[in-house]
Amino acid sequence: MDPAPPALRPAPASRPGRPRGALLAVLTALAALLGAGLLQAAPAAAHDATSTAYVEVDGSAARPEATLDLEYDLLMKSAWLYAEAYDAKGRAEQLRQLQRNADAVSEYVTGRFVITRDDTACPARTVGDADIRTRGERPYAVLTLAFTCPVGATGPVTVSSALFPDAESFVHSTKTIVHYDIDGRRGSQILTVTEPSVTAAATERQESHQIWEFFLLGTEHLLFGLDHILFLLSLLIGARSLREIALTATAFTAAHSITFLLAACGVVDVPAGLVEPLIAASIAVVAIAGLVLRDRTDNARWRLPTVFVFGLVHGLGFAGSLGIDERWSWELLLSLFSFNVGIEAVQLGIIVVVFPLLLLLRRSPVHRRVLPALSAPIVIVSLYWFWDRVAISA
User: Fold this and answer.
1) How far apart are alpha carbons 236 and 242 in whole angstroms?
2) Which of 174, 188, 286 has its CA nearest to residue 237?
């Protein structure tokens, strides 16, 4: 009789699918975060989302004067000058269109930007010719209005803005940053749909509201500032440990805080035509270097100095976007501090969400293929921005 065949060993139980499932979840989360940001990369999409107007009001309560910086394309469209907005691409042509359509532009602005005293509107008139200057990558029309308040009025000046409302369907949630210096009363305020007015009188409520509004403005600037987010993502992708990302994030924060305060206070003045291309270049450099040099033991030697230098450049970009142009004061410092804290809050939130996902990804065997795949679109977009911004500033 033939011996019984040896008992077959049971096939080893398959391992639970948790590691593979976890890896898939990590990749999905990272792709969603990166994709959501890159969908905003088109300048037109960012342009049509929201807008910020900048206003400087000074002089006396009887004769206040306001200088307004308004996004050129949006101003021309809102004044129903579509062809002029789309056809004028260079500064010279934009100036010509502003002069040619001065009456229509003035009618639109004076109908939505109002200064009152004792609940009575102060008549406005334009002073001099309009100008064009660049903020970030966008041309802004610079208009000056002179107001004559009623004789005998004794109350404080109130500034109100309804510029570029949602009802026009061009942008939404327009903000008007107002800085005023009227008869020694100085301050700053962000006007919105829910808070459309500010009275030039320092109060405790106004100061607390100012802190909150500038904090929110800082959070929104980083959330919608895709270039700064991509720079931060490049740092996270190239980092190998929590200690390393803590050091690089600290270096970036310290650097951009320094130049942000110096530029916003007028101590340093670097043209946006130089700052914006450098910001785009910094993203590509950090993303590429983080991949090429990530396995070197002296990684921290180049990362910290490089991140600090690029952080100085990003701080100039933060200051340019805020658009403050006034002499130093405690009110100004309070606004800048609140804005900067808002930026740091969002930056910390991104690190807390993204870095643990990247750590999980690094422990998987496919990280050497996946990390370059995550960095590739960052490099492509940043290089496109660089050449586009160089062309604009040329």
Assistant:
1) 10
2) 286
